[in-house]
Amino acid sequence: MADVLGGVSNEVLEKFGETILGKVADLIRDVGVDRKKKEKDVEEEKPPKVNSKGIQKNLDFNVKLRNILTKAVALGELDEAVKEVLELLKTRNGELMLLDADPSLLQTKEKLDALKAITGGTSEGSTNQSDMTSLLLLSNMSGGSNRNGGLHMESKRRRLEPYPGRQQWFRSESAFRGHGSARQNGGQGYGNSRDVKRSVKCFKCSQFGHYATDCMSFPERLSEAIEFWGNICSSEWVLSVIEDGYIIQLDSRVTLPEPQGLRPSVLRHKDFLFAEIERLEEEGVLERSDRLPRAVSPLHVVEQGKKKRMILDLSELNKSLVPPRFKLENMKTAWPFLENANFAATFDFKSGYHHIKIHRDSRDLLSFSLSNPPAAPYFFFKGLPFGLATAPWLFTKIFKVLVRKWRAEGIKMFLYLDDGLIVGETEYEVARASRRVRGDLAEAGVCVAEEKSFWVPDAKFTWLGYECDLVAREVRGTEKRMATWQSVLDELRRSVAPSVLDRMKFLGCLASFELVAGDVGVGRARWLMQTVGESQKKMESKNTRKEKSPGEIREIEFWKVHGEELLKRSLLEIEPCFDFLLFTDASARGVGGLLKDKKGCVLWKMSEIGDSNFEEQSSAWRELTAVDVASARLIGQVRGSIQVLVDSQAAVSVLRRGSMKPELHALAERVWKNFESIGGCSFLWIPREQNVEADEASRNFDFDDWGIADRVFKQAQRLWGEIKVDWFADAQNKKTERFFSRYPEFGSSGVNVFEHIPRAERMGLAWWVPPPVMIPQLLKIAKSRGLKGVLVAPLWKSHPSYQALVDSSGRFVRYVRDYIIYEKNDNIFIPGEGSKYCEATDSKFSVPFDSKAMSTAKAYKEENEKRNLWIAQRNLPVDESSLLLYLVDKAKRIGSSALTRISAAYQTANESLSTIGSSFVSDLIRSKRREEIQSRKKMVEVTVEDVSKIVELAMKEDSPAKDRDALLAVLSFNVMLRASEAAEIKWSGVKQKDGMMEVFVEKAKNDQLGLGRHSYFNYEPGSDTDILMCRWRLRTKGKCPYVFSNLDGSVKLSAQSISALSTKMLRAIGKPGATHHCFRRGGANHMRASGHSMEEIQTRGRWRSLVGLQRYIKDVPRAQGCSHPQEMLEDQVEDDEEFEYNK
């Protein structure tokens, strides 16, 4: 039997122990495997290789620390790793303090590390006390290799050595040549060792690897590397420029500018010029000679803050050059690549332009002298100078070769002249690209300004005046640029009348922020631009002070409030999401708009007719007006971001960037202000076919938008109870809070009430003011459903709707329970925006006279006032019978025409006459006309020959009065002008083209919409008519906008004056008793005799009807298709010309 311990056998215990030990062993093995796997997953990062030994040391140390910490995080052993890193940092700080005391110990430490490596010791991160002792010993042993205390001490000695004394201002040649003592005395101490030579820094070009005495001149640097350029460039022209220099191409016929000496204004910069010329001579950019050059240009100094730049003023020579068109890369070019970039590096050339060699044959075109007038010695540019018109193109063309190479190698880089930018997604990518670019520039002979270059990848960089943060994903102007902008803005705000130059400075600052400010930077500075533009057009001085206009004050305050916010931009271009879409359009007659939600449902619709001048405005003005009207209507109705969609590219451009035209910019400003009250907005152009609904809205107007006077509505509620809902209304004419509309409206209970009958029925007693055409349908539904409502309708007996209101006996239908009839003079109808332009509505409702010509409406109103006064004096009822009595009374003293006017005036303001009344009025007028025939004087006829006589008299006498009167006769006869129309003719409305004259009559009798009428007639250029027109216009000198004015052109003539002049001139040619109206009658009969139709005469003469025209026309054979015998003898040549007198 097995041994038992405590009830458990030994065999079981042994088996349990073996199982436990096996699991523990497996667990230990898994932990070891997992640790090895983690160590394997954590790859050790290798430091990138760079040329600078000091930077390489720092990179090695930093990567080492990073590897220690990365490995510790993966293994979960941070405590030990932190201790190790702290110890390394402590040791590193000790080394740096030691090296600062004696820089030569850097090489000594390298030797010590090499000895320790040979003996098997560790060399990295273990500089203990014994190492320090060894360092000092080795330093003393190697002291003879650097007698001057090392390169660093030599540099300090050179900086402390005073510069050679400069001679006086431009006295002798030696004053411009450098003294080489600082670069020639005292060796560098490292002999000819190659490693030491690599660490030497040139004092001339700031590059490593050579001494100043061995430094080549800037213009020769690229040509010395011609083998490198030949390997990467296939353009023979580029290689020839690099090797031999740039030849300035001048036309042989060009006259070179006169030599110009040193300008007195630059003498205040003489110290700067002295140093700059000395430097350029040392660098080989300038050479002096006593030889007279072909062109001598003056020097100019440009101040950019504290920085100065010497520029050769080649403005005269540049007039002979035509720079090719090309595009410079800038931050806008790089913008799409910055969104995904995380690191960047920047670099800058040293004296970039001077790298481009100028050909020997062209150097004498780029010279200057230091005396005035110019005299020897002359200074010639061997390198490309600032100021040459083709310089930016040439520099970009040459270095495009390197850019093409780098981009072909997958490097994302951009070069704006001599400023470069490298971007990438990873630090390693940018570091690799930086090494490649830096190496290629060195091989190409390009001198890099290391103090301005930042080759180490970083998430923050500054390039072309912008600070970019790739972590915050934001771009903004540099602090210096922002400070300049702020100071210029403050100056504008402080000054009541800033100078034009102050405005130009501010606009220049805004232009430099174009990338971040965008369209707002342009649109919100248009008033300032207009002031500068007007000043430049007048050629005023830049120092001229001008008071700020209201528009300028608004813009300056806008930038004060929003400047800081707008002058920065996020790199993350998030596609905006809009709450609403606003479609707008404009036609020749009006504007339209639709508001839709995100789902495309129409929330609101607008149609509005323009005024009488609307059609004459530009299409851009009309489109902007549509957006202005729509945005104004939306204020207080919606809140949120809106995308405005317009089918006019010109309008979209103005809405985004404003306009230099004040009337368009004022509209844009109103739109911006409207949308500020609503929310954010964006403007987008869409094709016309995508804007059909808004286009239809701009043409389809509601002419039935008339309403009812409030007194009528209140009376209806007193009689029949409270009215709950308005079935046919809009937001302007609604009578109740709840209403149904024709188009989508804010607050509307529904569109088209006939689609919502059950819901409308439940709302209660209805107010029915439908368009007359809908009355039959409404009554049919009301009868079938037993609806209750108050119907307001015109008793328009000639309209189809009247039949639905009365039965066969002429009484109201039986389901009309009660009614009130208002007389027409009660004016219960209120016109809407659309019904004002509806002739039918005007003639029946409250504004019947607006459809008439102004003179006609005035005459009708006067007649009605006289009639009403006559009736009131006799206590007669205001109805048709009183009219008939009034006509009988007036017929005793006035003629048939006056009686006709009284009848027409009554019918315009009231209903048409009854059958009996109409017959009575017709008989009365005909009777009066028969009486007039017996006593009528014979009408004086004015013919084309009479007009010719008037013209001939004017041509003979050469009198201003005769010229004006003759021109009046010509236009009145040809265009058949009334005296009132002739008084309103403007020079802008008279146009001559292709043997035809166009006359615009602003206020014609047949122009109910007030849009004006155009009349045309033929005339011969160079004829007497043409001469008269030109002569009279020159005499008035454009003082008066009207054609017919006083002789001094100060005031236009009245209609009465024109009538008097016409009577006088006709009497002078033997036509006594003739009036101005005889010209109109004579012109109509001349056209009829020439074979023109009645419709053509009616159109040109602006008669409202053929009936009115027929009274002017006399019977002639030609009008009845017969030819006069004399005409047949003359080869049947028809007189189809309008007027033969102007030969």
Automatic annotation (TrEMBL):
Transmembrane segments: none
GO annotation (BP), single: DNA integration
Limits of the CCHC-type domain: 201-215
Domain Tyr recombinase: 937-1125
Domain Reverse transcriptase residues, every copy: 283-468
Region Disordered, annotated ranges: 1123-1143
Gene Ontology MF terms in the entry: DNA binding; enzyme binding; RNA-DNA hybrid ribonuclease activity; zinc ion binding
Any Pfam family matching the protein: RVT_3
Comp. bias (Acidic residues): 1128-1143
Protein name, per record: CCHC-type domain-containing protein
Organism of origin: Caenorhabditis remanei
